[in-house]
Amino acid sequence: MKILITGGAGFIGSHLAELCLERGDEVYIIDDLSTGSMDNIRFLMDDERYRNRLFVTIDTILNHEVMLELTGTCDWVFHLAAAVGVRLILEKPLESIRINIQGTEKVLELCNKFKKKVLIASTSEVYGKHLHAPLVETDNIIYGPSSKFRWSYAASKLMDEFTALAYHRTHDLKVVITRLFNTVGPRQTGAYGMVIPRFVTQALHNEPITVYGDGTQTRTFTYVKDVAAALVGLMEREEAVGQVFNVGGTQEISIGELARRIVAMTGSSSTIDFIPYEKAFGRDFEDMQRRVPSIEKIHRLIGYTPKTDLDEILRRVIADMHQKKG
Ligand code: UDP
């Protein structure tokens, strides 16, 4: 199978590329390295086994000619290229909206032209600020006002979902939509705000752990390799076409507790500092207080259950970052 991964040099994309290469697929990556990095895929490019099966293009998905060629070549497309991380969305709102909306439209247009099956990586952000759990794919969504730019990310990803579903309805394009819940693991960088790599880096340097707000907000983390396997599993099933699936973990944890656990597991002398949101992100910010997926739908279809529990995820991230620290 020939597989195109947009954003394949990113954190999730690189793990997905690795899985596809292990499966024996031919993998085509396109990445503009805006948040992705060659460091994420160099070990794959250097691997003799993959010498004639991995092709990397450094370019934007908005480049029509390049995407035309790549989409025409491949059998499946995993569309992961997007603006990532709350911090990036707040710092570069226009670029983020543009790449999410125009980029996805471009991918869908070309997939439709060649009738290629495509998976769109959406996000748990689309649910907005729910307090109930677990979140089911058919739940209503609740956003804050447009003055609070965090929601532009959710809205742009929701538009991506609508566009994909519209291509399915109008042109019978085979689309699969996944809402990813806080995916974590080795190679994720804290540079765009992601909490686990940030806390682990801070702990390994014995620096204060920066908990935003009062730390009672919760998240449910998923190991990136479990996510990559789920994405491939969904693409293999015809019943997934035209459907939206949560992909997430089952262990809800507060950010305050996460900080304490990381300090304990690293044996760090870090203190835990509580930083008001306003100081971390400016005035126009609001957080999501709770985010827990229902994974019933994906479990029913492909038997998905997360294999890696939170402590094991943390152990692996700590080991990876410890090694990189030298
Ligand atoms: N967070 C934090 N300190 C940090 C980075 C993040 O307390 O240094 C919090 C953030 O406010 C959110 C949670 O950790 O409540 C998860 O943040 P992340 O950016 O990883 O993902 P999100 O779920 O917000 O997309």
TrEMBL record:
GO terms for cellular component: cytoplasm. Belongs to the NAD(P)-dependent epimerase/dehydratase family. UDP-glucuronic acid decarboxylase subfamily. Its EC number is 4.1.1.35. It comes from Desulfatirhabdium butyrativorans. This is UDP-glucuronate decarboxylase. GO terms for biological process: D-xylose metabolic process; UDP-D-xylose biosynthetic process. SUPFAM superfamilies: NAD(P)-binding Rossmann-fold domains. Residues 4-316 form the NAD(P)-binding domain. It holds the Pfam family GDP_Man_Dehyd. The keyword Calcium does not apply. Its main location: Golgi. The keyword Lyase applies. Gene3D superfamilies: NAD(P)-binding Rossmann-like Domain.
